[in-house]
Amino acid sequence: MKRIIGIILVVAFVATSINDIGRYFTTRYYLDQQTSDIARFAADELHRTQESRDVVGGDTANYAAQQGVQVTAYDQTVTNVTVFTRTAVKGTWVLARAHALLSKLPSDAPLYVSDSQTAFLQ
Predict the structure, then answer these.
(1) Which of 79, 89, 92 shows the shortest CA–CA distance to 111?
(2) Any idea where the domains of the chain sit in the sequence?
(3) Could you say which of 56, 68, 110, 118 would form a disulfide bridge with 82 (CB–CB 3.0 to 4.6 Å)?
């Protein structure tokens, strides 16, 4: 009986680990792609409209929100646009709660992944 319970616990641990790690890295991969797309959007929008930094930054944040991503910072120079983003990792069973516990956050606090990308003006 102890052996069966031990096997069940090991299988549950392995399944949880695979799920949580898979969700984390999948979210990170998609965020990288989305952030690149958002940075290209910002550069194209700036080139196309020649609007102020605030207007292009607002348009970029709205575009990112439609993609389910939050823009945390936006930097614009004469030659490029850099966008910093974050999104929550959804569907983890233990990882988000463990991160919240270690970070002394509420147990239902989401686990975020962040990214930044630079797009050059044309």
Answers:
(1) 89
(2) 2-120
(3) 118
CATH topology of domain 2-120: Pantoate--beta-alanine Ligase; Chain: A,domain 2 (3.30.1300)
pLDDT recorded at residue 51? 83
The reported pLDDT for the residue numbered 93 is: 86
Residue 86 neighbours by CB distance under 10 Å: 18
Tokens read off for 72: 């945390």
Question: Picking from 36-40, 47-51, 90-94, which range would have the lowest pLDDT averaged per residue?
Answer: 47-51
Q: What is the pLDDT of residues 53-87, one digit of tens each?
A: 889 999 999 999 999 999 999 999 989 999 999 99
Greater confidence (2 vs 28) lies with 28
Query: Taking the mean position of all CA atoms in its chain, how far away is CA 99?
Result: 15
Contacts 24+ apart (CB under 8 A), 42-51: 42/74, 42/76, 42/81, 42/83, 42/119, 43/80, 43/81, 43/119, 43/120, 43/121, 43/122, 44/122, 46/76, 46/81, 46/121, 47/121, 47/122
DSSP state letter for 50: -
